[in-house]
Structure prediction request, 98 residues.
Amino acid sequence: MLRYEMRAKIWVYPGKGGWHFVTLPADVAARIKAAMAGLARPWGSLGVTASIGETRWQTSLFPDKTSGSLLLPVKAPVRQREGLKAGDTPTLTIEVEF
Prediction:
Protein backbone atom coordinates (compact mmCIF):
# COMPACT_ATOMS: atom_id res chain seq x y z
CA MET A 1 0.00 0.00 0.00
CA LEU A 2 1.15 3.52 -0.77
CA ARG A 3 0.13 6.41 1.49
CA TYR A 4 0.32 10.12 0.69
CA GLU A 5 -0.47 12.95 3.12
CA MET A 6 -0.92 16.54 1.98
CA ARG A 7 -2.80 19.78 2.49
CA ALA A 8 -4.98 21.04 -0.35
CA LYS A 9 -7.74 23.60 -0.83
CA ILE A 10 -11.37 22.59 -1.35
CA TRP A 11 -13.00 24.29 -4.34
CA VAL A 12 -16.40 24.14 -6.06
CA TYR A 13 -16.82 23.13 -9.70
CA PRO A 14 -18.62 25.98 -11.48
CA GLY A 15 -21.06 23.69 -13.34
CA LYS A 16 -24.30 22.06 -12.24
CA GLY A 17 -24.43 20.16 -8.97
CA GLY A 18 -21.98 22.16 -6.88
CA TRP A 19 -19.40 19.34 -6.73
CA HIS A 20 -16.53 20.04 -4.32
CA PHE A 21 -13.01 18.91 -5.18
CA VAL A 22 -9.43 19.06 -4.03
CA THR A 23 -6.68 19.30 -6.66
CA LEU A 24 -3.77 17.16 -5.51
CA PRO A 25 -0.32 18.79 -5.46
CA ALA A 26 1.43 18.08 -8.79
CA ASP A 27 4.26 16.06 -7.22
CA VAL A 28 1.86 13.77 -5.35
CA ALA A 29 -0.33 13.33 -8.44
CA ALA A 30 2.72 12.38 -10.52
CA ARG A 31 3.77 9.73 -7.97
CA ILE A 32 0.25 8.27 -7.81
CA LYS A 33 -0.07 8.20 -11.62
CA ALA A 34 3.30 6.44 -11.93
CA ALA A 35 2.45 3.89 -9.22
CA MET A 36 -0.96 3.14 -10.77
CA ALA A 37 0.06 3.13 -14.44
CA GLY A 38 -2.22 0.78 -16.37
CA LEU A 39 -4.78 0.52 -13.54
CA ALA A 40 -7.10 3.35 -14.59
CA ARG A 41 -10.86 2.77 -14.70
CA PRO A 42 -13.29 4.46 -17.13
CA TRP A 43 -12.61 8.20 -17.61
CA GLY A 44 -9.10 7.58 -16.29
CA SER A 45 -10.27 7.33 -12.69
CA LEU A 46 -8.12 5.66 -10.05
CA GLY A 47 -9.67 3.88 -7.05
CA VAL A 48 -8.29 5.00 -3.68
CA THR A 49 -9.16 5.37 -0.01
CA ALA A 50 -9.22 8.97 1.22
CA SER A 51 -9.22 10.39 4.75
CA ILE A 52 -9.83 13.84 6.14
CA GLY A 53 -9.81 14.14 9.91
CA GLU A 54 -11.70 11.16 11.33
CA THR A 55 -13.61 10.51 8.08
CA ARG A 56 -12.36 7.77 5.76
CA TRP A 57 -14.05 6.74 2.50
CA GLN A 58 -13.58 4.78 -0.74
CA THR A 59 -13.52 7.05 -3.78
CA SER A 60 -11.80 7.73 -7.07
CA LEU A 61 -9.29 10.29 -8.26
CA PHE A 62 -9.98 11.83 -11.66
CA PRO A 63 -7.49 13.31 -14.13
CA ASP A 64 -7.73 17.07 -14.63
CA LYS A 65 -6.68 18.27 -18.08
CA THR A 66 -6.45 21.89 -16.95
CA SER A 67 -3.91 21.37 -14.15
CA GLY A 68 -2.45 18.04 -15.29
CA SER A 69 -3.04 16.82 -11.74
CA LEU A 70 -5.66 14.58 -10.12
CA LEU A 71 -8.94 15.66 -8.54
CA LEU A 72 -10.39 14.22 -5.34
CA PRO A 73 -14.17 14.71 -4.99
CA VAL A 74 -15.15 15.65 -1.42
CA LYS A 75 -18.80 14.70 -0.96
CA ALA A 76 -21.24 16.60 1.25
CA PRO A 77 -21.33 13.96 4.05
CA VAL A 78 -17.53 14.20 4.41
CA ARG A 79 -17.59 18.01 4.47
CA GLN A 80 -20.45 18.02 6.99
CA ARG A 81 -18.78 15.51 9.35
CA GLU A 82 -15.52 17.44 9.26
CA GLY A 83 -17.06 20.94 9.27
CA LEU A 84 -15.47 21.89 5.94
CA LYS A 85 -16.45 24.28 3.18
CA ALA A 86 -15.02 25.59 -0.09
CA GLY A 87 -11.84 27.55 0.59
CA ASP A 88 -10.76 25.39 3.53
CA THR A 89 -7.38 23.64 3.29
CA PRO A 90 -7.58 20.38 5.25
CA THR A 91 -4.89 17.79 5.70
CA LEU A 92 -5.87 14.72 3.73
CA THR A 93 -4.49 11.25 3.16
CA ILE A 94 -4.73 9.18 -0.01
CA GLU A 95 -4.07 5.43 0.22
CA VAL A 96 -3.49 3.27 -2.85
CA GLU A 97 -3.81 -0.51 -2.54
CA PHE A 98 -2.63 -2.94 -5.19
